[in-house]
Design brief:
By secondary structure, this protein is an all-alpha fold. The protein contains 9 helices and no strands.
């Protein structure tokens, strides 16, 4: 909690827990409050909390939620700067590629988004987690471009992988994603 990054500029005096006096010092609480505020469409407040968490801690979720709030406000330049701040602070992490890919998807630059996902997989592809996340990213990119059969194929591959690994929790998460994809688009095709 006290691993402040001096590149983030001046900071307030911190209490023993590593937080400004009178403010929540639990970074997870800051992040969770940010998510609640985003769900209420209170994006500026959400950005403030997630941004504070991203300056006090190094977890990718803090940066992702800051970026989500910035994008929701149409502040893409700031979102790019936040993603760059994460990349600079975590140069060996695979997550900067995912953050940049999400921003490319927001800009509807699907080629760049796909290249970034492929680079993440190339660098960290032996990781089961990265394989899973990049496959889901490929499915999301395909869906966003209207390539529904391709999106379903990616999710089906991931379901097969999780079944073979007896990864029930991951299997259920992907199965629900597959069901949402089918239900959403099958409903659209019957209108």
């Amino acid at each position: 909690l006290t691993d402040l990054d001096p590149r983030d500029g001046p900071t307030e005096e911190l209490d023993q827990g590593g937080s400004p006096p009178g403010r929540p010092h639990n970074l997870v609480a800051l992040n969770n409050l940010s998510i609640d505020l985003q769900n209420q469409r209170r994006y500026a407040e959400a950005e403030s909390l997630a941004g504070r968490a991203s300056r006090l801690g190094r977890g990718v979720a803090f940066f992702l939620n800051t970026i989500a709030a910035q994008v929701a406000q149409g502040r893409l330049v700031e979102a790019e700067e936040t993603a760059e701040r994460y990349r600079a602070g975590a140069p060996t992490s695979p997550y900067p590629y995912g953050l940049q890919s999400l921003l490319a998807r927001v800009r509807r630059d699907f080629g760049a988004a796909e290249s970034l996902v492929r680079e993440s997989r190339r660098r960290q592809g032996e990781s089961r987690f990265i394989r899973s996340i990049t496959t889901r990213s490929f499915a999301g990119l395909a869906e966003q471009q209207g390539k529904l059969a391709e999106a379903k194929r990616h999710l089906q591959e991931l379901l097969s992988q999780h079944a073979a690994e007896n990864a029930a929790r991951d299997y259920l998460a992907v199965a629900s994603e597959f069901a949402r994809l089918a239900a959403t688009h099958d409903r659209d095709s019957t209108k």
